[in-house]
């Protein structure tokens, strides 16, 4: 089989890239290890920057997001017994939308299927060949057969556990990494929202986040040991922990509900530079990871895809290679900005084992500053909505 662009991974990066290329008349095939049900039901991100919303809307896949997503004009920071608001729209003129990642994926899969786009679910043994030539290929197993996809370009959108990154020779690549000694315990529960806006809470017991999914389903997280297991936590213990960390700031109680999903995620910052070699390009989590505190991961994947679409379009329409050549350099500017923001917000909000009282007071001083100085609040808001200069 032959196509112009072979895409590995049907996450937000791979599916959106395939769809944007289709809109420009460029053919692609998407190869995915999981099945459609699995990708459409995995619970991950929830916050979409305005630039992400605009791109999904321009691409014709924003209707449900607009109807069902919730537009938020600010969020709250809770610390030291108080809750203070960051007025995103007032400070930046931009807002965010809370709309689950798996809903974005459903919209993208539906668009690819409606356009008869080539999507292969359930592939295995994916391997990449010939990226130093102008005829690269991807080999894989599908429905018991060994297949080869020949293409002009291979795009690795296969997330942090994928195979693509390792196809860039280690000698040409530098990996930057920081692993945090804590994780997030995430729950989905039934019930009304506890607050109109997200609440990021710093507490001596650890960080907590109150987010939402819909008027009837809520998403909350609390900092935990990354090696802990969800079986160790009864629903009562989870609620006691969330109440202790969030309610104490202003006495307003978050609303308990029936918990129907629990998971623990580790926290990591990671950047692979370069993000390209020969005819192979990486996009999204395949090239970089941020801790979820800044809500940047999905938005960065979308930003990579925007740059890559323009570069591939310039290649096919104008026979230009300059935008492809500078892809990694262009994308990495935004990535490093988001890496810093996510690291900064994570460091300010979490309980850090072994931190001295002096270091704890520095966290509080920083929170006081970003919630009282218009300049500092604006810097935080610009980063959060994704319009900070890079
Ligand atoms: P994905 O979504 O991981 O998709 C990669 C796909 O590739 C497939 N795959 C392969 N396919 C073929 N062959 C192979 N060898 C393959 N190996 C892997 C996988 O099955 C998968 O389907 O990467 P992508 O597209 O780069 O998208 C990245 C985002 O998913 C991720 O950054 C976000 O979920 C991060 N994130 C958040 N981002 C935000 O922008 N806002 C948020 O509010 C937010 N909250 C979060 C998050 C991530 C979280 N977790 C679970 C780490 C909250 C959490 C808890
Ligand atoms: C979420 O709703 O899942 C969410 C919101 C904000 C974050 C991370 C995750 O920073």
From TrEMBL:
Q: Which GO terms describe its molecular function?
A: 4-hydroxybenzoate 3-monooxygenase [NAD(P)H] activity; FAD binding
> Pfam families, from UniProt?
FAD_binding_3
Keywords linked to the UniProt accession: FAD, Flavoprotein, Monooxygenase, Oxidoreductase
Q: Which SUPFAM superfamilies match?
A: FAD-linked reductases, C-terminal domain, FAD/NAD(P)-binding domain
Q: Does the keyword Zinc-finger apply?
A: no
Q: Which domain of life is it from?
A: Bacteria
Which InterPro entries does the UniProt record give?
FAD-bd, FAD/NAD-bd_sf, RIFMO-like
- Gene3D superfamilies on file: D-Amino Acid Oxidase, subunit A, domain 2, FAD/NAD(P)-binding domain
Boundaries of each FAD-binding domain copy? 2-341
Q: Name the Enzyme Commission number(s) assigned to this protein.
A: 1.14.13.33
Q: Can you say what this protein is called? A: 4-hydroxybenzoate 3-monooxygenase (NAD(P)H)
Protein species of origin: Paraburkholderia ultramafica
- Per UniProt, what is the name of the gene that codes for the protein in this document? praI
């Amino acid at each position: 089989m032959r196509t112009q662009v072979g895409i590995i991974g049907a996450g937000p990066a791979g599916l959106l890239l395939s769809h944007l290329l289709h809109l420009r008349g460029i053919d692609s095939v998407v190869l995915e290890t999981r099945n459609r049900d699995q990708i459409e039901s995995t619970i991950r991100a929830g916050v979409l920057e305005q630039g992400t919303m605009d791109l999904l809307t321009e691409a014709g896949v924003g209707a449900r997001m607009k109807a069902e997503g919730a537009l938020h004009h600010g969020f709250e920071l809770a610390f030291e017994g108080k809750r203070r608001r960051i007025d995103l729209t007032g400070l930046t003129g931009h807002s965010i939308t809370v709309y689950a990642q798996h809903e974005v994926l459903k919209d993208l899969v539906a668009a690819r299927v409606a356009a008869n786009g080539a999507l292969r679910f359930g592939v295995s043994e994916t391997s990449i060949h010939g990226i130093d030539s102008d005829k690269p290929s991807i080999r894989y197993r599908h429905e018991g057969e060994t297949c080869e996809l020949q293409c002009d370009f291979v795009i690795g959108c296969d997330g942090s556990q994928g195979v693509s990154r390792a196809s860039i020779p280690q000698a040409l690549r530098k990996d930057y990494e920081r692993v945090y000694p804590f994780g997030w315990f995430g729950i989905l529960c039934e019930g009304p929202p506890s607050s109109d806006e997200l609440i990021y809470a710093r507490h001596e017991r650890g960080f907590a986040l109150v987010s939402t999914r819909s008027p009837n389903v809520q998403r909350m997280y609390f900092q935990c040991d990354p090696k802990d297991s969800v079986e160790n936590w009864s629903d009562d213990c989870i609620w006691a922990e969330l109440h202790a960390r969030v309610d104490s700031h202003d006495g307003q109680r978050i609303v308990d509900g029936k918990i129907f999903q629990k998971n623990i995620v580790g926290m990591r910052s990671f950047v692979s530079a370069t993000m390209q070699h020969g005819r192979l390009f990486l996009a999204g989590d395949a090239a970089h990871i941020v801790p979820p505190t800044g809500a940047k991961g999905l938005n960065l994947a979308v930003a990579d895809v925007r740059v890559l679409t323009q570069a591939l379009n310039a290649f096919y329409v104008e026979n230009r290679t300059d935008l492809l050549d500078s892809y990694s350099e262009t994308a990495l500017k935004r990535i490093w900005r988001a890496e810093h923001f996510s690291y900064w917000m994570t460091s300010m909000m979490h309980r850090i084992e072994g931190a001295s009282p002096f270091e704890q007071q520095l966290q509080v001083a920083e929170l006081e500053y970003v919630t009282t100085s218009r300049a500092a609040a604006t810097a935080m808001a610009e980063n959060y909505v994704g319009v900070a200069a890079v």
